[in-house]
């Protein structure tokens, strides 16, 4: 895929994502490919790819009969995602401590530095996903790794929203990630397991507050 085309696709994806998170599009609204293409003055191809990106993030459903429909964010959905993460991710993190390579640990530390410097909530949420995946990647052949990785991806929009609405939590999350890194460096699996569980529980509580605050338009006010 040509670089310029990919850039257009990512721009459309970012704009549509922001529209959904800000409340411009509400749950149940239909997104029409030709209308979005005219709005952003692009062809329908990058719009179609952006729709697929929104579906992978859990923000829309794509149905042969109903078309592309905004799914929205719900407390029930985020609670289920994080209940599963809280059960599975600390276990995977503990397992990965013993097998993580120096290369992966250095890469995770580099991602952490980028997160500390990031100002855009979605950028931070994407880096957050990369950070956790990088630390646990030594277990990527396992079924547990695949399950946790999928949960990280679908959690990302909720993480973005929580930071839009409560920017101050970004600093707290960065500090907790530093603690997780330190646990990996010390090869202390039990400590990492404990910190990851506490980190996920606190994140869930913040996200639930953010989703409950709906109007989502407050995210940009």
Helices and strands in order, then pairings?
Elements: H1 3-22, E1 30-31, H2 33-40, H3 44-56, E2 60-63, E3 67-70, H4 75-99, H5 102-117, H6 121-136, H7 143-165, H8 169-185, H9 189-212
Antiparallel strand pairs: 1-3, 2-3
Helix pairs in contact: 1-3, 2-3, 4-7, 4-9, 5-6, 5-8, 6-7, 7-9, 8-9
Plain-language structure description:
The protein is mainly alpha-helical and 221 residues long. It is built from nine helices and three strands. The protein has helices at residues 3-22, 33-40, 44-56, 75-99, 102-117, 121-136, 143-165, 169-185, 189-212, and strands at 30-31, 60-63, 67-70. It has a three-stranded antiparallel β-sheet with strand order 1-3-2. Strand 2 (60-63) and strand 3 (67-70) form a beta hairpin.
Q: Alpha-carbon distance between the termini?
A: 37 Å
**Number of separate strands:** 3
Please give the share of residues in helix: over 70%
The low-confidence runs, each spanning 5 or more residues with pLDDT under 50, are 1-5, 215-221
> Quick one: overall form?
elongated
Task: Write the H/E string, N to C.
Answer: HEHHEEHHHHHH
Average per-residue pLDDT, rounded, comes to 87
Quickly give the structural class.
Answer: mainly alpha
Describe this protein with a few key phrases:
221 residues; 3 strands; 9 helices; mainly alpha; three-stranded antiparallel sheet; disordered N terminus
């Amino acid at each position: 895929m040509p670089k310029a085309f990919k850039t257009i696709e990512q721009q459309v994806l970012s704009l549509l994502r922001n529209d959904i998170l800000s409340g411009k599009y509400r749950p149940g609204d239909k997104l029409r490919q030709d209308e979005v293409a005219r709005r952003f003055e692009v062809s329908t191809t990058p719009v179609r790819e952006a729709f697929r990106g929104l579906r992978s993030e859990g923000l829309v459903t794509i149905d042969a009969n109903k078309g592309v429909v905004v799914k929205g964010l719900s407390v029930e959905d985020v609670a289920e995602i994080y209940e599963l993460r809280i059960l599975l991710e600390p276990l995977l993190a503990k397992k990965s401590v013993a097998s993580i390579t120096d290369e992966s640990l250095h890469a995770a530390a580099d991602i952490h530095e980028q997160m500390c410097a990031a100002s855009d909530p979605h950028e931070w949420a994407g880096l957050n996903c990369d950070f956790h995946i990088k630390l646990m990647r030594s277990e990527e052949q396992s079924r547990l790794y695949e399950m946790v990785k999928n949960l990280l991806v679908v959690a990302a929009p909720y993480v973005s929203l929580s930071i839009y609405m409560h920017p101050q939590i970004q600093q707290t999350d960065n500090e907790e990630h530093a603690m997780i890194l330190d646990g990996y460096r010390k090869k202390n699996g039990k400590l990492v397991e404990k910190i990851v569980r506490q980190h996920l529980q606190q994140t869930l509580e913040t996200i639930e507050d953010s989703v409950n605050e709906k109007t989502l338009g407050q995210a940009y006010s």
